[in-house]
Design goal:
The complex is a heterodimer. Chain A is mostly helical. Chain A contains 15 helices and 2 strands. Classes of the chains: A mainly alpha, B alpha/beta.
C-alpha cells in the first residue's frame, strides 16, 4: 500500500466540530422545554384551542415522517386521519367503550388502512405516489358519503361523549381532557423521534437519499418504505381519533381532500425533514386561522400568500432555517 | 484476433457469467449478444469507447435492468429472474458511476447502514441509534482502509469528490461481497488517489472477485488479469492486456485514443 495518510482531494471539508456534537442532545432539551411549556399553556391560552393545535401538530408530524424522512409525498393522509376520527367517534358513541379504547380502535383502523393502501401505492414514486394516495383517499371520502348508517352523511357524528378515561377520569373537565391530549401528543412525538433515530430510521433516510444505492447494498427497500408508511398512517390516525374525542364530532371535513393539504402546508411552513418543524407549522397555521377569521374567504388567500412566501424565502421552513443558522438538526 | 474461447475453463472457476445477453431499448441494442465469464478471484476489466454498453452490462449483471434475453449465473446458480436486492444479498455488489452515497447521513452513518445490512435487516424502529454503535469498530477500520479517518462526523454531501468515491467503495466493502462490480472507480480522481485506490482494489481482490469498468488504461493494464473489450454492444476482444492492446480491431475502435499505457 502507498502511504495511507495521503489525503484524497485536498480541497475541502474538515470534519466540522458542530457536526460531532450529538443532535439528539439538543432535541431532548427541546422536548423537555416543550413539555413544560405545554403544561403551562392552558393557563394563558384557551385549552380547546391548544388541543386543536396539538392534534394537528401530531397529524403534520406523522405526515412529515413519511415526507421528510422517507421522501414520499402522500396526498391522502386525510383518509387515515378522517377514518380514525369516524371509528373513534362511532365506537365512543354507540359502543360501551371508554375513550382510550375508542382512540385505540381509530388508530388501529388507520394503521391497517396504511398497510393496505401502502401495499398498493408503495411501488410508485414522486408524483405517481402522490396521485395514487389521492385517489385512494377520494375512495375513502366517497365511502364515507355512501355509508350514512356509519358516518351519518352530511350531518356527521355529532355529540360524541367524551366519557371517562379508563372509566375513572371525567373528560368533560377540560383540564383532565387536556392532560390526556398532552400525554397522547408527547407520546406520539417521542415515538416519531425514536423512529427517526432508530436503526430503521437510519435506513429510511438512506433510502430517501439514494434508493438504488440502498438496493445495491441488499436492502429490500419497499418493505422499509411500507413500514414507514404504516407508522405514519397509524400516528395520523391517532391524531384524528383524539380530535374526534376532543371536539366530539367526526364529519366529512375530516376525510375531504383539503384535509390532506393541511399537513403538507404545515410541514412546508415549519420545515420538512425536521423533528419540530411540522408542529411549529401547525401552530402558525392554527393561530392564523383563529385570529384571522374576520378575513372570511380572504383567509385562504392570505394563507396561500404566506405559503408562497415561505416556499420562496425559507425553502427549509421556519425550523429548517433556524437549524441551518445554528448548524444543528432540530 | 477473435475473442479467445473460454469454454476450456472449468465451470467451478467461473463465479459470475452472462450468456448471450441482449438488452434492447426502443430501436437499438445497448447490449447485443454479450457472453462474459468472470473467473473466481480475478480482476476483470471491461473497457470500450463511450456507448459501448459497459454500464448497461453492469446493470444487467446486477439485475438493475432486466435483460431482453440471455442468462446470468452466479456460483453456478441461475440468477436471471432475481430482483436487484436479492442479487446483492447473494454477494454480487455494485458501485455506481456517479458516486452514490447517502448525502444527508454522516460518513459514519453511511457505513453503519451498510454494516447493518450485513448483520441482517433493520426493521427495529423502537430501538435507539446507539444499537448501531456495535458497528463502529468495523466502520473505523473501513475508514482507515480508504483514507477517511477524521471524517466520521462529516455529512457525506460535504465530502470532496475523491473522498465520496472512497466512501462508496468502503460501504461496498462493508457488506463483504463475493463479487464487486466497480463502475469507473477512478473517474474524477487525482493522481495520488488513483494509486491508493488501485492498491486498495488489489488488496480486496485477494479474497474476492472484481469486475470493473475503467477508462484509465494504465490502471487497467496494471490491475487486471483479464480484459474484455466492448464496442457497440458486442464483445470485440478478450484476453490479457498484452494481447488485447495489440488487437487491430481494438486499436481501431479506440482510434486515436491509443491503448499505450
Amino acid at each position: 500500500m502507498t502511504d495511507t495518510s495521503a489525503p484524497i482531494g485536498l480541497t475541502a471539508a474538515r470534519a466540522t466540530p458542530a457536526a460531532e456534537r450529538d443532535p439528539k442532545q439538543l432535541q431532548r432539551w427541546i422536548f423537555v422545554g416543550l413539555f413544560l411549556f405545554l403544561c403551562a399553556a392552558p393557563w394563558f391560552a384557551y385549552p380547546i384551542f391548544v388541543m386543536k393545535i396539538l392534534c394537528f401538530a401530531l397529524f403534520a408530524s406523522a405526515f412529515n415522517l413519511l415526507f421528510g424522512y422517507v421522501g414520499l409525498l402522500s396526498f391522502g393522509h386525510a383518509a387515515y386521519f378522517g377514518m380514525a376520527s369516524y371509528v373513534a367517534a362511532y365506537t365512543a358513541k354507540f359502543w360501551p367503550v371508554t375513550p382510550e379504547i375508542a382512540i385505540l380502535l381509530g388508530t388501529a383502523t388507520a394503521t391497517l388502512m396504511g398497510l393496505v393502501f401502502g401495499a398498493i401505492a408503495i411501488r410508485r414514486q414522486g408524483i405517481y405516489f402522490a396521485m395514487i394516495t389521492l385517489a385512494l383517499a377520494q375512495l375513502v371520502y366517497f365511502f364515507a358519503i355512501q355509508t350514512p348508517k356509519f358516518t351519518h352523511g352530511e350531518d356527521g357524528l355529532q355529540g360524541v361523549p367524551r366519557g371517562y378515561l379508563f372509566g375513572i377520569f371525567d373528560l368533560a373537565n377540560d383540564m383532565t381532557l387536556y392532560a390526556m391530549v398532552l400525554a397522547i401528543f408527547m407520546g406520539g412525538m417521542l415515538l416519531i423521534h425514536r423512529v427517526i433515530h432508530s436503526p430503521f430510521g437510519q435506513i429510511l433516510q438512506a433510502i430517501r437519499d439514494n434508493e438504488p444505492r440502498a438496493i445495491s447494498l441488499g436492502y429490500r427497500t419497499q418493505r422499509y418504505k411500507l413500514l414507514g408508511l404504516v407508522l405514519s398512517a397509524g400516528i395520523a390516525g391517532l391524531a384524528g381519533a383524539t380530535k374526534a374525542i376532543v371536539f366530539q364530532v367526526a364529519t366529512l371535513v375530516d376525510v375531504h381532500w383539503s384535509m390532506s393539504g393541511e399537513p403538507i402546508l404545515m410541514t412546508l411552513v415549519g420545515g420538512m425533514g425536521t423533528i419540530f418543524g411540522p408542529m411549529v407549522g401547525a401552530a402558525v397555521i392554527g393561530v392564523m386561522q383563529n385570529y384571522m377569521q374576520g378575513l372570511g374567504s380572504w383567509l385562504t388567500v392570505t394563507q396561500g400568500l404566506i405559503f408562497i412566501f415561505c416556499v420562496l424565502a425559507f425553502r427549509a421552513g421556519i425550523v429548517g432555517t433556524i437549524g441551518r443558522l445554528i448548524r444543528r438538526d432540530i | 484476433m477473435s475473442p479467445e474461447p473460454v469454454s476450456d475453463v472449468p465451470a467451478d472457476d467461473i463465479v459470475l457469467s452472462g450468456t448471450d445477453l441482449v438488452k434492447g431499448f426502443k430501436g437499438f441494442y445497448a447490449v447485443d449478444g454479450v457472453s462474459l465469464q468472470v473467473r473466481r478471484g480475478s480482476i476483470h476489466a471491461l473497457i470500450g469507447p463511450n456507448g459501448a454498453g459497459k454500464t448497461t452490462l453492469f446493470n444487467l449483471l446486477t439485475k438493475f435492468l432486466t435483460p431482453t434475453s440471455g442468462q446470468i449465473r452466479f456460483d453456478g446458480r441461475d440468477i436471471t429472474g432475481l430482483k436487484p436486492a436479492e442479487v446483492a444479498r447473494l454477494g454480487v455488489v455494485r458501485s455506481f458511476q456517479i458516486s452514490a452515497v447517502f448525502d444527508r447521513l454522516t460518513v459514519l452513518q453511511n457505513l453503519r447502514v451498510a454494516l447493518q445490512r450485513k448483520a441482517g435487516d433493520g426493521f427495529r424502529f423502537w430501538e435507539t441509534e446507539n444499537r448501531m454503535r456495535r458497528f463502529d469498530d468495523e466502520a473505523e477500520a473501513l475508514m482507515e482502509e480508504v483514507g477517511l479517518e477524521g471524517f466520521a462526523h462529516t455529512p457525506a454531501a460535504a465530502l470532496p469528490y475523491g473522498r465520496k468515491r472512497a466512501l462508496e467503495l468502503a460501504s461496498t466493502l462493508a457488506v463483504d461481497p463475493k463479487v464487486l462490480l466497480l463502475d469507473e472507480p477512478m473517474a474524477g480522481m487525482a493522481h495520488e488517489d488513483i494509486d491508493r485506490i488501485a492498491d486498495l482494489i488489489r488488496h480486496v481482490a485477494q479474497s474476492r472477485t472484481v469486475l470493473m469498468v475503467e477508462h484509465n488504461l494504465s490502471v487497467v493494464a496494471s490491475l487486471s488479469d483479464r480484459i474484455t473489450v466492448l464496442a457497440r454492444g458486442k464483445v470485440l476482444a478478450e484476453g490479457d492486456y498484452a494481447s488485447v492492446s495489440q488487437d487491430p480491431q481494438v486499436v481501431g475502435a479506440y482510434m486515436g485514443e491509443g491503448l499505450h499505457a
